[in-house]
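Case study: NAD(P)-dependent alcohol dehydrogenase.
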Amino acid sequence: MKAWLLKDFGLENLKLEEVETPVPGPGELLVKVGAVSLNFRDKAIVEGFYEPHLVPKPLIPVSDATGTVVATGQG
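Here is what the predicted structure looks like once written out:
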């Protein structure tokens, strides 16, 4: 699948890449995203201003999305 991936802080580090499709674990869903809304929080995360010590990397930054559930984990 293609995803905008953030490997380090800064807009220059946000790259469209081919990544492995995740497999949902227990209590998780896999959603085929149809639309996203990027907002100020997403920009602040990308730039490293929003709780940078809590941001895992690499990260697909998105706060709001809609789509179709395509797989479920157990539970």
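For the exam, be able to explain this: The chain has one domain: 2-72.
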